[in-house]
Amino acid sequence: MLVFSRLDALMAAARPRAACVLALDGPAPLAKLLTQRRRRRRAGRKEGEGRPDRKGARAAPPPGEPPLSSLALTPGSPFMAFVEAALEYYVCARLGAGRWPGLQLELSGAGVPGEGEVKLLARLAAGHWAGPAASAGTHCLVGGDSDLLLMAAACRADGPVFVMVDDPRPARRSGSGRGGGDRYPPPTPPRLFSVAALDAALGRALGGAPPARLAAARRDLALLAVAACGNDYLPPLTGLTLPAAWRAYLRAAAAENPPPPLVAVADDGAVTIDAYALAGLLEAVTGGDPAAAAAAAAAAAAGSDDDDDDFRPPADPPSYAGGLAWLLAAYVTGRCVDYRFVYDGRGPHAADLARALRQGPPSIAPPHPARPPLPPAVCAAALLPPGEPGRDAAPRALRGLWSEGSPVADLYAGCAVCDSLSTRAAGAQRAMLVALETARAAAKEAGAPAVAAPRTPKVEAARAAVRAAAMARRAHVRTVHPYEPFPLARLEAAVAAALAEEAGPDAPLDAALLSPFGHASRYWRPGGRLPPGPPCPLPAPPAARLPPLDPSRPPVARERLLEVGVGGAPAAAPAAPGGRPKPPLPRAKKVRPPAARRARPAAPAAPAAMRAGARGRPPGL
Ligand SMILES: [Zn+2]
Predict the structure, then answer these.
(1) What H or E segment, with its residue span, contains residue 364?
(2) How far does the centroid of ligand 1 lie from the alpha carbon of residue 134, in Å?
(3) 426 and 357 share a domain?
């Protein structure tokens, strides 16, 4: 219900007139799965301890209902099938009630590969690649992820593009002292970002460049932002900040013989990075001094606060460069060329990457041929954390993987030493924050000038405790858990075996949940310029509190779609099953629901909800 009212509010704010895409996160590229996996293991541990966590928050469930964990919001989990069924109910209820006349809605569920944001990019870019006639209209991307800004900047779309950043979570906790620590301020209102406004700003910075140069500058900005800040797919370079990189970029662009753009897009959509242009920029930032670079890298490695670094092998600059090309290709085209690309190493130093680029080929293409996405069941098995929280969120057929004799039991084995060292590190961190705050308050009382980091003996002692805790943890990880590549093939085999073994009266339910991939569907209410179409069966209410849909209302048409960009395939035309005429898909606003990750939907009455999910689920491809 909360999700429905949130969606109503977003639809009212974005006011789509022609088409709207609701895209849930489906199986993500392996690189992102591994990042999520590390994150979720932390969240799962905190849930196991009964402590609320920002990413794994849990609500007090109403009496008689199971607690809802954000861990269940994983492609391939029964709960995601429920969310998808609930969204279909929402779409049919609103369209049937005459809401949004003339609008077509597309629902791309968690069984359709790709992250929600990237699915939206695929829609934007598909219009572009389909030719100028298909790409009129204004587009609005709505989502809670600030990466959407970068994606919109890099994406090749025609027509004005806006991004509405809607994050129902507050930026941070209000208050840090006694009593105020657990209260959250209300969500921030959505912020609107305009690609045209970015172009105007870039035009001023580049001294009145033509539109094609502005589009190239946007892609280059996205590339530099990923390299400097990192994201869910790649760690950041060391020795590079975004402001420094951008200043160097503008200086180079203003030179008498400016270098070509960093990112090149061919007429067929192939994306490459100009190795020498990027090397030149990195050299300009780092001064091109390998000795200084090595010292900085050593210092960065020693002082790194990034938990992830403990689990990563050394940097591999050529592979990192390929990763940049792979990522930009996904941003520009909305298609993931290789779902199984992973860069596992630490972020290289900018000077090391520059050197590798000088020694390699002049242009960097995404490194691998197309490899298919992971089936949703494999995603669920890879992402859900050890112990009960993870096992309980898994489909029944897979729960045996968590038991001791399973061939992948090691993936779900916790480590008591890691847990206690993490607790110690978190405690030291908290103690340091308290010491800092006390020192600041004391300085203020004494009338001393404000200092961000006062250096009192207590603060220094707390800082030393934080360092000691981090070093103990790192030493343990290096000796007991050395880096190993994720055993994907072993996990895939174990999941396949578990599914084959599954039998009995409940098998059809899990079989539907675990079918390799789902379809997206398009819904509309026939009339006006929208043609009749295959009617959509009335979806069951996802919760007992919601009324069944009224069969006497005008029917809603539904059409299954072949997903754009599945498995790196070229953009596919929408299917017209049974030879029926397919309705036009005007290009307009796209709305991504905050549903999947952000809001906290009402907890389902599990068995009925899961049956509804199974029924509402389209057959596999
Ligand atoms: Zn351990």
Answers:
(1) strand 363-364
(2) 54
(3) no
Dist. CA 415 → ligand 1 center (Å): 5
Ligand 1 centre distance from Cα of residue 225 (Å): 33
- What is the domain extent for residue 427? 416-480
Residues 223 and 344 in one domain: yes
Distance 475 CA to ligand 1 centre (A): 10
Residue after which a domain boundary falls, among 454, 480, 506: 480
CA 550–ligand 1 middle distance (angstroms):
56
- pLDDT of 124 reads 82
Hey, is 479 helix, strand or coil?
helix
pLDDT band at 65 (very low <50, low <70, confident <90, very high): very low
CA–centroid distance, 38 to ligand 1, in Å, is 14
Q: Ligand 1: distance of its center to the CA of 414 in Å?
A: 8
Question: Is 366 in the same domain as 217?
Answer: yes
Number of residues that make up the chain: 621
Would residue 164 count as lying in a domain?
A: no
Distance 594 CA to ligand 1 centre (A): 35
- Calculate how far, in angstroms, residue 421's C-alpha sits from the geometric centre of ligand 1: 8
Which pLDDT does position 296 carry in this prediction?
A: 57
- Ligand 1 centroid distance, CA of 310 (Å): 11
Please indicate, yes or no, whether residues 322 and 453 belong to a single structural domain of this protein.
Answer: no
**Total structural domains within the chain:** 2
Same-domain pairing of 311 and 214: yes
Neighbours of 383 (CB within 10 A): 26
Is the same domain home to 360 and 421? no
Distance 479 CA to ligand 1 centre (A): 9
Give the distance (Å) from ligand 1 centre to CA of residue 425: 14
Whole-angstrom distance, CA of residue 470 vs CA of residue 473: 5
Mean residue pLDDT across the chain: 77
Distance in Å, CA 480 to ligand 1 centroid: 6
Last residue of a domain, one of 339, 372, 405: 372
Same domain, 366 and 458: no
Q: Which of 171-185, 371-385, 449-463, 601-615 has the highest mean pLDDT?
A: 371-385
Same domain flag for 342 and 441: no
The three state secondary structure string of 535-585 is: ECCCCCCCCCCCCCCCCCCCCCEEEEECCCCHHHCCCCCCCCHHHCCCCCC
What's the CA-to-centroid distance between 533 and ligand 1, angstroms? 57
Which one-letter amino acid corresponds to residue 582? K
**Does residue 330 fall inside a structural domain?**
yes
pLDDT at 289: 56
Is there a contact between 40 and 385 (Cβ–Cβ < 8 Å)? yes
3-state secondary structure of 143: strand
* Domain contains 187: no
